[in-house]
Amino acid sequence: MTQPLAVLAAEQKSADVTDWPDRIGWIVGLLLFIALVYWLMRQGWKWRGTLQGDLPALPAAPSAPGPARLELSGRYHGSTTAGQWLDRIVAHGLGTRSRVELTLTDAGLDVVRPGATDFFIPVAQLREARLDKGIAGKVLTEGGLLIVTWEHGDKLIDSGFRSDRAAEQAEWVETLNNMIDMNSTSSTDTTSSTTITTEGTAR
CB 109: neighbour CB atoms within 10 A? Predict the structure, then answer.
């Protein structure tokens, strides 16, 4: 009886031996695969940035933008071509996710991003604000993102933000759209007045 028990114990001890060369080979192969995927992602990012090289430099905030109408602290989740939430824009740092401080004044929207490129959207370039659930690969609950549509160069851009206090995003949508409507009306009135004045002078 003692001999079979000894054989069984020896077999159990042998089963604990690990095939280290195979395991190390698998680990090295996995690390190389991860490195390859990361390299391909970086190359794709650079290629996309090259394609978007015609996008003008981002506007800087004016020295005297006026008093703040609204302020927001939260996260910047990226920018895409307007209406195409997966067509990420990476030129000029717009593809970098970051913390964000938004300040809305009569001059426009100031976007301050610690550790990333700041930019400013003049009120004349604002086109629309809405609540949505996704942008640039980031999906949240319905209405979880504040999306600001703006014009830069000849391109319409959607930029996505999420406030640390999500309930205040509805106020931002309302205020931004009111500003856009007022600016659009003012621009139309100015154009009409200029046309009437020109016609009167011609006569």
Answer: 27
**In the prediction, which pLDDT does 203 show?**
54
Per-residue model confidence as pLDDT tens digits over 136-151: 777 888 889 999 999 9
Q: Is the pLDDT of residue 121 over 70?
A: yes
Average the pLDDT over 152-161 and give the result.
93
3-class SS letters over the chain: CHHHHHHHHHHHHHHCCCCHHHHHHHHHHHHHHHHHHHHHHHHHHHHHHHHCCCCCCCCCCCCCCCCCCEEEEEEEEEEEECCCCCCECCHHHCCCCEEEEEEEECCEEEEECCCCCCEEEEHHHEEEEEEECEECCEECCCCCEEEEEEEECCEEEEEEEEECCHHHHHHHHHHHHHHHHHHHHHHHHHHHHHHHHHHHHHC
The closest of 136, 135, 105 to 120, measured between CA atoms, is 105
